[in-house]
# Entry
Amino acid sequence: MIEEKKSMQEEVASLVEKWKDKEGNLIMILHELQNYYGYVPRPAALELSRVLHAPLARIYEVITFYNFFKLEAPGKHTISLCLGTACYLKGSAILLNEIKTLLNIEEGQTTKDGLFQLDVVRCLGCCGLAPVIKIDDKIYGKVQKNQVMGILSEYAEHKPEV
Ligand code: FES
# Structure
């Protein structure tokens, strides 16, 4: 535990050193932290606040302003539900509600078991397949509400052999 904390302090210190003289350094440091951890852990934000002498509130203001930054550890599988115009018109909001209900999470959250993270996106570049859900790198097109559970169950941890 202490070792993990120390390495996080070292990570923050090296990023601050790398970006200290550059404009927009807070955002760049946060980007690098997120690339490294998959999200911006609170201890890293606290350490950054301490090292940069920046108020923690200012750091969280930046994190929460940009949708890109995440405050929770990412789930094993990322669900990207498209709410772009084509998908929305074809009922993707209904799919979103179905996923939220089935997984008991809101947008931007991760399930308690860490299996899924739910993100909403504005277009996945395959509008002809609307409504579209992407899970990790796999695209599901023309998805109907009653197919959602089956799709999610493909990612269940103990999938029965077929
Ligand atoms: S609007 Fe959904 S893929 Fe383009």
